[in-house]
Write a structure and sequence with these properties.
Length: 237
């Protein structure tokens, strides 16, 4: 069964400061994601990968087209759904992990990671224990677990970001460059954790420029070229 079916999606941006110049980020996108499938999304910088992911998460509202999402409680069009429905889906079953951690001030790393569970689970210490286990697996030094991620290095912030994205075992995981600034050992841990989610039934859309990550993780690849899905990769990325 498909968890996502995208039909003829397009996204244009109106740049008011440039006299209403229009940028077309995505055109005529048709794609599906099956339940439990891991899709690697590739393409040159600026080809529209993050824009497509943000349309699925509804950070960007698609200009035209349809995104049919088979939620736990029925099919919903993520383009037309009202904001309350989107907020509920984000809380319960969809997770987006951006390229960079948006740091929450004065919240320790362990709580940043545990936050998706702290909202729903009664046992807060159990949620924090799970966060610590993930941070340990990802090799974040224990001295940093209670520190604020604002001062962390790029790779340290990325570990916090990935741990936060996977802790609640979402049904749909949208993950942008999860292994970009990680060493090979940590890359393997991230790949293993995402594979574990797949076993649990999670569907994953993963943007990556990293051939090792793509070849070890993705069941299938989609390639974007200037905002369109191309059937074959004809360019060097
Ligand atoms: N909020 C926005 N406002 C205006 N233009 C945007 C916005 N977001 C993306 N774009 C434009 O859409 C196009 C696609 O950008 P996008 O960020 O999706 O590329 P990408 O494939 O993720 O690139 P990268 O690999 O560098 O992350 C670019 O031309 C970009 O400038
Ligand atoms: Mg991007």
């Amino acid at each position: 069964m498909n968890i996502i079916e995208v039909h003829q999606l397009s996204k244009t941006f109106d740049l008011h400061i440039l006299h209403d110049k229009q940028i077309t980020a995505l055109q005529h996108i048709d794609m599906t994601i099956r339940e439990g499938e891991i899709i690697g999304l590739t393409g040159r910088s600026g080809s529209g990968k993050s824009s497509l992911m943000k349309c699925l998460y509804r950070t960007y509202l698609a200009t035209t087209g349809e995104i049919r999402y088979a939620s736990a409680s029925g099919v919903i069009d993520l383009v037309k759904a009202d904001d309350h429905a989107i907020i509920a889906l984000r809380r319960q079953e969809m997770r987006y992990c951006s390229q960079f951690l948006s740091v929450i001030p004065r919240v320790p790393a362990v709580d940043v990671v545990a936050e998706p569970l702290l909202r729903t689970e009664k046992n807060k210490e159990e949620a924090r224990a799970r966060a610590r286990t993930l941070l340990e697996m990802l090799g974040l030094p224990s001295g940093l677990w209670d520190a604020y991620p604002v001062t962390f290095s790029g790779g340290e912030q990325q570990r916090v970001n990935v741990a936060r994205a996977i802790i609640a075992k979402p049904r749909l995981l949208l993950i942008d460059e999860p292994t970009a600034s990680l060493d090979v050992r940590t890359k393997d841990v991230v790949i293993g954790l995402i594979r574990d989610l797949k076993q649990h039934g999670t569907s994953v859309l993963c943007i990556s420029h990293d051939e090792y990550t793509l070849s070890t993780l993705a069941d299938r690849r989609l390639h974007l070229q200037a905002g369109r899905i191309t059937p074959t990769v004809t360019e060097i990325i």
